[in-house]
Amino acid sequence: MKQLHYSFLLFIFFILFACSKNTSTSVTYDVTDATVRSFALAAQDSFPGLGAAVFEVDDRLDTGLIAPKDGDSLLYGTSLHRVVPKVTFNSRPSAAIYYVGDTSFIYTGYDTIDLTQSPVYLRVYAANRKDEKYYRIEAYAHSIDPYLYHIDTLQTQMVSPARTTHVLHKNGMFYAFLTDGYTVRLTQSADAASWSEEQAVTGLPAHAVIRQIVVDSVSSDFCYLADQNLYRSKDGLTWTAASIPFPQTPFNIEATLFAFANRLWFAATASEDTFLANYDTDNGQVEIIQAVPSDFPVSDFATAVFRSVSGFPTALILGGFDHDGQMSANCWSLEKTNNAFRLLNLHTSHYAQPAIAGATLVNYANRLIRFGGLSRDGNLNGVYESYSEGLTFVPADTTHLPVPKDFAPRYRQSAIVLNDCIYLIGGQDHTKHYADVYRVRLNSIGW
User: Fold this and answer.
1) Which of 6, 101, 112, 224 yields a CA-CA distance of 20 to 30 A from 389?
2) CATH 2.120.10.80 residue window(s) in the chain
3) Edge-to-edge, what's the strand order for the sheet holding 240-243?
4) Can you give the pTM of this predicted structure?
């Protein structure tokens, strides 16, 4: 576009506005008003998101700023090189002129401008041709793919030798419980990269399944239910045991499931039946919810606690092994509705999924993400996602989920969601244990 002489621009624009037959009541005739009422971008076939962008007009004494609301950016890949602004004014101006780099031209309502150049100005002259106002126009498009996961390797060998590991987060610290099948030890970290010297854990039973240790949401104690006892610890090192008052005797606790709705949940057998029950650490009472089928998992299951789209607190139990050592294809959903709990098996015949054990499940970026796990045929799984709260899982988009060069498929790894990141720690495959630590973040999280 050629550089136009200012006086000629002003004359032409004045004629255009004087001849306009627009009788819209939204435009007044205050001869001193040179302010912009609204600003938007016309949608394009290739970039429909342009039309949805919301801009705010910040008016000052003689200058102003037109910028995206709350500093938001347009979708990744949106082109701002040739956009058509739609501007409305508080009062009919005598002229409005764009300044884009070294080029200036009259605003007509159909102009194509390049918002990637900086700065871009809109100069508005009031109807009296004396009062005027400058506006700086800004727009942004994300330069980073929002669906791309960024992965950092924080540690390749957090402990040596690598063993079965279960990591929890409490009060700003990571706690890694380690076992070789005979003794349990503990190491801690503030950043999941540098870990303390291992210390021996005392007070847990010799057969403790460390992957079932949970953090009580009421007391913040580490807790583990087994036999007829609740084992508790403040620091993870020294544990004490206390019997729990199960309504039926004799009984035996088969598995600690999770901490949910201010209770500790577990599966227990009594009178040849298996029950889903919870222990309230606040009042020391046990509540039996219902009997569960014989294929209910008692080991190597994955769990996740989150708030469902219905608004109810929900906990999932996915896969694992039952009493007979059979691998489960079920996904159980425990929902707190008002003052009652409801347990459902999500995997009906319509939503049947392959059996899996030793997977890790987290709620992240409005979806459930399943990492690893062992299939019935012995294969190790990759990453799967569920947008249906556990009804179905589909393979994750590997083009957006880069796998570190030294990462190997595995099961029984730990996963923690903290500060908009997922921390993946340890795990094992058919031949070895791992002691590596990865931090995973979706680009759009935190924008």
Assistant:
1) 224
2) 149-442
3) 214-215, 222-226, 229-233, 240-243
4) 0.75
